[in-house]
Amino acid sequence: MARAPNYDQERKERDRQKAAKKAEKLAAKVAARERTKPETETETETKD
Q1: Which residue stretches belong to region Disordered (predicted)?
Q2: ∠ CA(31), CA(35), CA(36), 5° rounding?
Q3: How confident is the model over 15-37, as pLDDT tens digits?
């Protein structure tokens, strides 16, 4: 006998996976931006 679908739980799981993927992409973008940032900008930011 097949189980009854639990649409709400399945939707929440998909949304959680989507949010995790989005956060991972954002973190990768921030890390890439930090790596490519010129040294002069980081030096002036730390002097303030």
Answers
A1: 1-48
A2: 120
A3: 999 999 999 999 999 999 999 98
DSSP letter string over 13-39? HHHHHHHHHHHHHHHHHHHHHHHHS-H
Q: 5: how many CB neighbours lie within 10 A of its CB?
A: 8
Compute the distance between CA of residue 9 and CA of residue 5 in angstroms, rounded to an integer: 9
CA distance 42 to 27: 19
Amino acid at 3: R
DSSP state of 2: P
Answering whether pTM is above 0.70, one says: no
